Amino acid sequence: MGLLAGSTVLLLTVIWGTCIVVGKCDIEDSVARDTKDTKGFSLTGSGVSTDIWTSYAARIMAVSILPFVIVQLPELLHSTTGRHLAVLIALIFSVFLLISYCLYQVFQPWIQKRRLDYAKHKHVISGILQLLKTHASGRLLDDDGEPNIDVIKKLFLKSDENGDGRLSAAELRALIVGIQFDQEIGLDKDDAVDKVMKDFDTSCDSFVDINEFVAGISRWLNEAKRSGDISADPGHKTLKFLTDFHVRTKQEHYLLGVGDQSDEVIESGQNSKWLTVRAVLMLLLGTAIAAVFADPLVDTVDNFSNATGIPKFFISFIVLPLITNSSDAVFAVIFSKKKKIRTSSLTFSEIYASVTMKNVLCLSVFLALVYVRGLTWNFSSEVLIIFIVCIVMGLFGSFRTTFPLWTSSMAFLLYPFSLALVYVLDYFFGWS
């Protein structure tokens, strides 16, 4: 437990903070710009950005501490009964989280593709609204702040090339082709037409009449309004709320991590089955190693502590985590030095994933040993430290994608605080 708690604390404090310092770039428009590092050690002007999926990894990590809370409930309630049952319930829940996490990893590419498709569709919405603004002879919103129907109808009539009172797929495509989208979006024009048709064609006749067009554009304008700041005079704010919507759409697409993937190892499809089998075998092998060497590891720490006079706390909580997490530290530093959102996302996702697997896989093995052997669960200080660090860093990483340089100091300070707290609780209050 000392090794587990020490590893979690080390990863989320020292290594996490080091990645911010090593990978810092200039922050512009709330996003760290790839490879641009001209502001030096500015606490607010430089930092690291990650994609949206890294935030999800942080949330999953925060959820993974629930088995610790379950097994600790009898201690919190000052109850001597039900401790063995609490260990069993925590074990079952931990295994459930482990299986769920593995399944999430399997289906994540599909989820990511759906989110990316939605982001591209929002780019189409933003482009058409910008076109509407450019060609509007009047205001897009009336005095009540509602979509201006006359302006929308003028765009419809201009797009209706054959004058039959409805837009075909070809006419919609001509409208979309005329919009200048950013090159990095990689927009498929035919796919965009299909999505717009699906949005507008409520009669399902493969055409968009004027009423459907007005209703669809009005719905889009209202969505854009919710992203901006509409005051009492919407006419003067039209440009601002459309600009806000466009900027947020670009930022969302950017933070989905669609950029250069040259830093990743792209495996061919023909090896996917073998990769799956190998991953499962490695998972089972790691579990077996953790189970087999748990007792010898404890005995070794005891013997080494007795022979050298070094407290077991220092060995298990500080020395062993430094040794066992050295590969994670090297990986994190190497990838952070590339100073890109893509590589920073990989780095922090790896940190969160490593902590998650420790919380569910290693804890499952440990709880199984405790339950089978009928041992007493008495690790309150370690559980408290894991809980504090995972919650603080998990929440911090869950609700933001840009981390200024000052956030590294918070992580660094959390490390000595954790060491001091465990030492005081163990040696002065006798928690363990």
Give a quick set of tags describing it.
four-stranded antiparallel sheet; 2 domains; two-stranded antiparallel ribbon; 4% strand; 432 residues; single chain; 15 helices; mainly alpha; Recoverin, domain 1
Q: Major beta sheet, specifics?
A: 4 strands, antiparallel
Total strands? 6
The percentage of residues in β strands lies in under 5%
Arithmetic mean pLDDT: 81
Shape: elongated
Q: What is the tally of helical segments?
A: 15
Helix content: over 70%
**CA(first)-CA(last) distance:** 11 Å
Low-confidence stretches: 229-236, 259-270
Kindly report the spatial arrangement of strands forming the biggest sheet. Answer: 2-1-3-6
How do the SSEs run, as a string of H and E?
A: HEEEHHHHEHHEHHHHHHHEH
Structural class: mainly alpha
Number of domains: 2
CA radius of gyration is 27 Å
InterPro entries: CaH_exchang (IPR004713), EF-hand-dom_pair (IPR011992), EF_Hand_1_Ca_BS (IPR018247), EF_hand_dom (IPR002048), NaCa_Exmemb (IPR004837)
GO biological process, one term: sodium ion transport
Domain EF-hand: 147-182, 188-223
GO molecular function: calcium ion binding; calcium:proton antiporter activity
